Amino acid sequence: MAIKDYIRQRYFPQMWCPGCGHGTILNSLLRAVDELGLDKNSIVMTSGIGCSARISGYVDFHSLHTLHGRALAFATGVKLSKPELQLLVPMGDGDALAIGGNHFIHAARRNIDITAIVMNNRIYGMTGGQYSPLSGPGKKATTAPYTTIDNEFDVVNLSIAAGASFVARSTTYHVLECIDILKKAISHKGFAVVEILSQCPTHYGRKNKEGDAIQMLEVQKKTTAKLGSKALEDDPTLIPRGIFVDIDAPEYCQEYDKIVESAMKSANSSNSSSSNENRISLTTKSCVTQGE
Amino acid sequence: MARLKLKEHIINRDWCKGCGICVHFCPKKVLELDSQEKVVVVRPEDCICCKLCELRCPDLAIEVIHE
Q1: Sign of the C-alpha dihedral computed for residues A38, A41, A45 and A51 taken in this order
Q2: How far is B22 from A70, CA to CA, in rounded Å?
Q3: Contact between A227 and A54 (Cβ < 8 Å)
């Protein structure tokens, strides 16, 4: 299928500013889905609020445009009720880690089979350029005219610590790498986090004198290096790109199925057991009902 | 790998916002922005069909068709 078959063409041209990296992320994501040959009816995209969240309106998948920061909570609900569906959750940096910070770490802890994409442009673009938990110290924003003093989260380290079983980082400059990582993340069974560094020329770029979209992409090219590369070894201040974690870990929906199965077994066996054991199994049964 | 032969560039002028990312990062400088700040193909004979313009375009406005 062509890329155009995966989008809702009636909503184009899209609403993002000229040169916004979010469009490139949409482009890469569509290519990853296309190259994996996924059926668009098997994909659900949930998103929260913000520039990044508008992505769910442009894709011709099942889509849910939900509450600020709650995209992962909705995705968890969809995945548990229909585990056969593929969940894609693109989120902005503020959406994922400020407003939705708790949902993010707990989804990672559960290792539920969802692909979370953090579209990190280091600012709240839609509301006028307020600093986000990923802006980092010394950056200018409308809410920090004399620069920020807050340290930023490291999405990769945070996700690893929270228990995500696939963690990667790429940029909108390195498109081929980005498509490759997204393909691996979508195919991964478990909670996959992909941080994609994006550019916001309108707010972040202008406030921090980083120039237009082209110059911001040049910055991404210069300030990042592939994991295990000579460049990263020589200069550890560079931002590493690549796949940091890719492990097999028990997946939440499968574990849940096992619990249901063992509960059903004990419920069935209690029906045929002697009256002596009935008291104990009844307690188990009531626990199961509560659990459901 | 045999060199890919270009057929055409399909440019959607309604979707192009003239950000210039494709123009700047084209390794062969095939593209330029016109007076209306929309991308145009000026040196199609130099195109090596690497598709980096197509992949980086935030507006899905350019497509490279090869034989």
Answers
A1: positive
A2: 35
A3: no
Residue type, A7: I
Residues of A in contact with B25 (CB under 8 A): 214, 217
List domains and CATH numbers for chain B.
Answer: 6-66 (3.30.70.20)
What is the Cα–Cα distance from A209 to A201, expressed in whole angstroms? 10
Chain CA centroid to CA A247, Å: 17
Query: Looking at this predicted complex, what is its ipTM?
Result: 0.95
How buried is A225 (Cβ within 10 angstroms: 0-12 exposed, 13-18 middle, 19+ buried)?
Answer: buried
Half-sphere exposure in the Cβ direction for A1 (13 Å, CA): 17
Taking each helix axis from N to C end, the angle separating A71-81 and A101-110, rounded to the nearest 10 degrees, works out to 30
Residue with tokens 């989804």: A107
Among candidate residues A258, A117, A259, A111, the one with its CA nearest the CA of residue A189? A111
CATH class in words for A3-249: alpha beta
Q: If you average pLDDT over every residue of chain B, what do you get?
A: 95
Query: Structure tokens of A157?
Result: 């380290």
State the smallest CA–CA distance between residue B18 and chain A in angstroms: 7
- State pLDDT tens for residues A22-65: 999 999 999 999 999 999 999 999 999 999 999 999 999 999 99
User: With an 8 Å Cβ cutoff, are B58 and A27 in contact?
Assistant: yes
Q: Which amino acid is at B12?
A: N
- Segments making up each domain of chain A, as ranges: 3-249, 253-291
